[in-house]
Amino acid sequence: MNKKVDQAGRFLRYSVPIHLINLITAILPNCTPTVAIRGFLMRPFFKKCGKGFRIASGVIINNPERIEIGDNVYIAHNNWINGVGGLRIDANVRIGPMSVIVTSQHAFENGKMTSGYIPAPVRIHAGCWIASKAVITDGVEIGADSLVAAGAVVTKSFPAQSKIGGVPAKLIGKPGDA
């Protein structure tokens, strides 16, 4: 099959419906029933999506067919999520507003950016809380029950029960530490 035809088919099958759902539900407030309805409507367009998925308005999702979402995941408003390299968000994860999750990076040749990209999967294990305006870059794995502080830029993987913060992010303790 022609690669361009396959890309167009994926775009029409997965990306367009999610953006239409966002457009249609944008007039509704970000309250418990609305985010649950939006999540229910979007579920079929992901590679996998568990029950209890909730998603607020203004979330941009690219390549949803490469994204797996566990049970009871909440994604707050105005996030940007790119699934091109593969993304797995396990159960009971909370992602705060205006965060970014990137599963690829631009390719460079002879010091210049090309039109290509290099995909690398991201995994966020169960029970994590990604606070607002956090950035998680390609190839990162965040261990279970971890906390990513607001504004952190995560460029490497961290084990379970990590409290992560800073630019670039580093281990700053365990969740619940003062």
TrEMBL record:
Protein name in the entry: Acyltransferase
A Pfam match: Hexapep
Source species: Listeria newyorkensis
Spans through the membrane: 20-41
InterPro entries: Hexapep (IPR001451), Hexapeptide_acetyltransf (IPR051159), Trimer_LpxA-like_sf (IPR011004)
Sorted UniProt keywords: Acyltransferase, Membrane, Transferase, Transmembrane, Transmembrane helix
GO cellular component, one term: cytosol
GO molecular function, one term: O-acyltransferase activity
Family named by the database record: Belongs to the transferase hexapeptide repeat family.
Domain of life: Bacteria
